[in-house]
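User: My advisor asked me to double-check a structure prediction for Carboxyl-terminal protease before group meeting. I don't want to rely on an old file, so could you generate it fresh from this sequence?
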Amino acid sequence: MSDKPKRRFSEKHLYYATVALIVVSLMLVGTFARAVKKADDDQFWEFTAMFSEIYKEIQERYVEEVDSKKLFEGALQGMFLTLDPHSQYLDPDNYSQLEKDTEGAFSGVGLHITIRDGVLTVIAPIPGSPAAKAGVRPWDRIIEIDGKKTEGITIIEAVKKLTGPSGTTVTIKVYREGEPDFLTFTLVRKNIKVESVYYKMLDDKIGYARVAKFSDATSRDLRKAIEFFKEKNAKGIILDLRFNAGGLLKEAIDVSNLFLPKGKVIVSTKGRMKNQNQEFRAENDPVTDLPLIVLINKGSASASEIVAGAIKDHRRGVILGVKGSRSYGKGSVQTIEELAHSFEKDENGNYRPAAIRLTTARYYTPSGVSIDKVGVTPDIAVELPKGHEGELLKHGLYGDPPMEEEEVTTTPSRFTWKSNPLETTAPAGSTPAPSDDELNNEGSLQGSAVKSKDEQTTLPEPKKIIPLDRKLFPDAEVEGEAKKEEKKPKKNGQFVDYQLEVARRLLLDYIEKGKDFFAPDSGMPPAVASGQDQATSQAVSLAQ
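Assistant: Sure, here is a fresh prediction for Carboxyl-terminal protease from the sequence you gave:
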């Protein structure tokens, strides 16, 4: 996730034998030299001297004339390839594209993407988008775009390839865990407008708010939604963070503050620089103390996980997820730094700004746990019918426009990037969404610190699994744990969002009957009735 505010590097007039040396030194000295020890500083000068020598040799002796700009940018990109995939140099075009991405409107296929284990990976498709309608799913690995391998591609480069004029097409090939063949999707780009918050009353008692992304106005818009619910005398709220890939750190904090008492820790960040070690607390009184259920799935990432983690740790509400999965597990903070120098000028002769996006910290839940690459474990896990989540993406969540079906074909080929960190074929080597068993050694969401792999820590299971209820959805065939047929839950012939329906019924049972969400032996703490003193840190819990 990105922390939006930018600061400009201070200029330092350093003169070297080559222009390349000037550029590299300005970046490194202007940004990091103050934090570098004397020994490392001496080594820095040795490295820059070596860089200058290599640059000169290439310019004078390479078989063809070299474009200096491409050479410089290649060197800069190379530095960032040694870091995590979220850190990168942003040339003027990519920097401009990044700022457009925060505006909420674009023409593309509707995918939130990242680099995971060296492979371009889908965090979540935007519900109702061309990608969602075609059948692209969270954790799909994109190995080709328009016939070209994505090996070594950056996120910004991938975004440029996937976006384009409305009506044009792009073809992607993906590997999906459990599928014997690659899937090829031909997608028609559409104009996509992503609003931050959608809300409505599900009935006369339950307010529903879907947060699609965390942008500049998210907390303000969600506050409006809550005020609307209060005007309608709502008795409970469902906050939907499914398929929300994240956004701005500040907005995640402000959204959490809408529900948490003043003074409560929401999230902390830890990094190498002193100013990155911060603790963020709720600065205001909560807007509401109504009972709360938060919906998450494996497409909930970054800022979504900050909110879900804070709500869970303070027992302010219940986290309702999907059996067999957690949230995505992106727990790092990126800072965008606009550079004082650039390679390119505009038509008026002014330098176009470039920037770097740098991972500067990791974030931790109020209990002191990092969920990076682990995710948030739901309190309640709903067992969905086979294929239901895919149908939900095609149908769209509340606020998504109906979309036309796109084309999907299967391709019997293998994933064979020998130079990729996976170094194997896809079925044997790609990393699927983390399962409970695979994450046993990654850390504990219950403890006060991240456990090392040697400590063999097992992550907690959801407090209760809710299987599919035949009485609610008679069209959904179920036999024990396995589903016989891929049928959509329906009610009166209409598609039903089963996870949302379970949340609604649980909340109604709690409001109307005081019915316990959990089995008696669940180990959940007693509920704190709505309206009681929130300074006790327990706030409102939906468990009795």
